[in-house]
Design brief:
By secondary structure, the chain is mostly helical. Helix content is 40%, strand content 2%.
């Protein structure tokens, strides 16, 4: 009897061992219990990942080659030409929004189609590709409509153009047309003014003399303007919120562009005469609607 029981225990133990081994082999081979059935793959030790491929920056060429307003396609030609006319005869083509005797072309020579620099005024070629742009005045990115209205309210001492107006649409279309082909948000080297680098302290008295001898023949004895040039102070000039009311801006502009057609002011002369002009009376800026 005892022998039968011993035999039964031996057989049962052997059977359980065999079945257990079989089940273990089955689960290890066909079922991955790690992660509840989600197969995971470990990377062999010592494997090195290839470095990320750096993104290549493609820089389009910035070339000065503005198209003529007359060459604009038929669908936008009327708007482009109106924009050009507003630039050159602002008081005629945008009369309700102008409050003085200036035109855009007084700063933006040839309606802004220039290379800037010496005798080139302030170029507008490329502004259509450069905005929206951060401006310190607003401490935010502004669009072309906002920037244009800054000029109308300050340099033109006038009122802002409604953004949906025919005049505003024409001006922005003009900007974009003469900026054709320039890469968006590229660095346009001919835009803007570079302040003069000098340790010279501007002298108002010397500026007075310079204005009398070099400037008054075109701008008038008391800065009132003539048929040859705009007023530079007084009721019909730009107001004290305009960029040109800042002596540093006016000096840089005068050094490169005055006298018109034959600029010959030294850096010191430009600083002196700008100091004198910006000290003269002019309208106070107030936001008009």
């Amino acid at each position: 009897m005892k022998n039968n029981k011993l035999a039964f225990v031996v057989v049962t133990t052997f059977t359980i061992t065999i079945v257990g081994a079989g089940l273990s082999l089955f689960f290890n081979r066909f079922i991955n219990l790690t992660g509840f059935g989600v197969e995971t793959t470990s990377m062999p030790q010592g494997t090195v990942l290839p470095p990320a491929v750096p993104q290549r920056e493609t820089t389009a060429a910035v070339t000065y080659s503005p198209p003529s307003p007359q060459d604009a396609p038929a669908a936008i030609r009327e708007a482009v030409l109106l924009g050009a006319n507003i630039m050159t005869e602002t008081g005629k083509y945008a009369a309700p929004y102008v409050g003085n005797k200036l035109s855009c072309t007084n700063c933006h020579f040839k309606a802004g189609i220039t290379h800037g620099g010496k005798n080139g005024g302030l170029s507008l070629v490329g502004v259509g590709a450069s905005y929206p742009q951060y401006r310190k005045r607003q401490d935010y990115a502004v669009d072309l409509e906002t920037r244009t209205n800054d000029c109308f309210q300050r340099s033109m001492n006038g009122r802002p153009l409604p953004e949906e107006s025919k005049e505003m649409a024409a001006i922005v279309t003009y900007y974009q047309w003469i900026s054709k082909g320039l890469p968006v948000f590229a660095e346009i080297p001919w835009l803007g003014l570079q302040h003069l680098k000098s340790t010279h302290a501007p002298d108002n008295a010397k500026g007075t003399q310079l204005f009398d001898t070099k400037c008054s023949v075109c701008h008038g004895k008391i800065g009132e303007g003539t048929s040859a040039a705009p007023p530079v102070w007084g009721d019909t000039s730009f107001n004290d919120g305009a960029g040109m009311h800042k002596s540093a801006n006016l000096a840089a502009f005068a050094h490169l562009n005055m006298p018109l057609g034959n600029p010959d002011l030294s850096v010191e002369d430009a600083l002196d005469v700008a100091e004198y002009i910006t000290a003269q009376p002019r309208p106070h800026f107030s936001s008009k609607q």
